[in-house]
Amino acid sequence: MARGGSAVAVLSFLLGLPLLSVLVAGEDPYRFFTWNVSYGDIYPLGVKQQGILINGQFPGPQIEAVTNDNLVVNVFNKLNEPFLLSWSGLQQRRNSFEDGVAGTTCPIPPGANFTYILQAKDQIGTYFYFPSLAFHKAAGGFGGIRVLSRPRIPVPFPPPAADYTVLIGDWYKTNHTDLRYMLDSGKALGFPDGLLINGRGWNGYTFTVQPGMTYRFRITNVGLATSLNIRFQGHTMKLVEVEGSHTMQTAYSSLDVHLGQSYSVLLTADQPGFDYSIVVSTRFTTKIISTTAVLHYANSAGKAPGPLPGGPTTQIDWSLNQARSIRYYRSSVHFLFLVQIQTRTVTMKDNVT
Ligand SMILES: *[C@@H]1O[C@H](CO)[C@@H](O)[C@H](O)[C@H]1NC(C)=O
Ligand SMILES: *[C@@H]1O[C@H](CO)[C@@H](O)[C@H](O)[C@H]1NC(C)=O
Ligand SMILES: *[C@@H]1O[C@H](CO)[C@@H](O)[C@H](O)[C@H]1NC(C)=O
Q1: Where is the Plastocyanin-like domain (predicted)?
Q2: If you ran DSSP here, which 8-state letter would residue 26 be given?
Q3: Which of 89, 257, 307, 324 has its CA 20 to 30 A from that of 71?
Q4: CATH class, 163-325 region
């Protein structure tokens, strides 16, 4: 970073362009977080469980950042086991020892703390963090990360009225130590007991929308074993981002989200004022389970009429075709750049042959 800065400074001196150094003068901002990781009672499927909370929250607090921000996260481990956090999707350039998987980063011993120093270098988009050791993820400790574009960097859609995180995942009533023991003794994980949306079971979470406005929903599958499908009753989703890349804005009536994947969709509240269901169901499983959250119009007259929207269940082709339909967003500038690169490749090949 310093080297890049001074190179630009030298360049701007040579070229007599003081403006250039003004443009790069800003230090990348720092954001500081202090997180207490502890056990606490949660009731995601109606029965009491010992969850892993961050600052008392399940799921954990959301990280909001802007491209190039430095994130300094001081994590205090108040569990009785070593704990390690991983930052899914953050690229950790020249920074792999902060990635938080066994082998790159030491776990935080019980009662100790460790400060992760991360940078969202040149990144935008939707990511998440999760505990990477000891099956802790089955008890919580995960949360959303969003990296917004810097001001003046064009985003290929107008700012949404609000930006909602939707963490979906399978859930087991068996606690993480018992699940871990099962796996260690060679048994399969078994079928999940339910699905959660933002840590809540059936109709346990509500997203409120104003009629006529457009919202961004950042959807991540934070579960352990199950691919999921999500759909909004009476609405289509316009896909705009997949894990840090803007996409061509295709409309989908339902979307498969496999483990660890993150998608951003835009949804316009253009239907009559009701409470609509957001349905999440399992994919590729013989038994299908589902859960719902509520899309609540501020002017709602009550529950929307009609059945819950159905989705694909065991069809694999459907999922592959959907994945193949997703394309990078291309502005005309981006397109010219690609043409240039391709032309250059052709020229190089000509030289070789
Ligand atoms: C973390 O816990 C300590 C006490 O153990 C408390 O003083 C501090 O305020 C907590 N921090 C947060 C961010 O919750
Ligand atoms: C632990 O927390 C203290 C108090 O915030 C801080 O000064 C120290 O640097 C932290 N230690 C590590 C290893 O991050
Ligand atoms: C998990 O449940 C078992 C009993 O089935 C109990 O012995 C163990 O302490 C529990 N672990 C946690 C972390 O709550």
Answers
A1: 37-150, 163-299
A2: S
A3: 257
A4: mainly beta
Of the CATH numbers 2.40.70.10, 1.10.3720.10, 2.60.40.420, 2.60.120.200, which one belongs to the domain with range 30-148?
2.60.40.420
Query: What length is written for the chain?
Result: 353
Q: What is the pLDDT of residue 333?
A: 56
CA geometry: angle 69, 244, 324, nearest 5 deg? 175
174 lines ligand 3 (CB under 6 A): no
Rounded to an integer, what distance in angstroms lies between the CA atom of residue 263 and that of residue 237? 11
Taking the C-alpha atoms of residue 49 and residue 12, their distance in angstroms, rounded to an integer, is 60
Question: What is the model's pTM?
Answer: 0.88
Per-residue model confidence as pLDDT tens digits over 206-249: 999 999 999 999 999 999 999 999 999 999 999 999 999 999 99
Asked whether 238 and 266 are in contact (CB, 8 A), the reply is yes
In three-state secondary structure terms, 245 is strand
Contacts of 14 (CB under 8 A, 6+ apart): none
Spatial strand order of the sheet with 206-209 comes to 206-209, 290-297, 275-282, 228-232, 255-257
Ligand 1, from 32, 36, 75: best to mutate by most atoms within 8 Å of Cβ? 36
Q: How many CB atoms lie within 10 A of CB 30?
A: 11
Tell me if residue 4 falls in helix, strand or coil.
Answer: helix
**How far apart are the CA of 139 and the centre of ligand 2, in A?**
25
For the chain, residues classed under CATH 2.60.40.420 are 30-148, 163-325
- Measured in Å, residue 56 CA sits from the centre of ligand 1 at 10
Average pLDDT for the chain: 90
Distance 130 CA to ligand 3 centre (A): 21
User: Is the CB of 36 within 6 Å of ligand 2?
Assistant: no
Name the one residue in this structure whose structure tokens are 């239907």: 271
Higher pLDDT, 127 or 21: 127
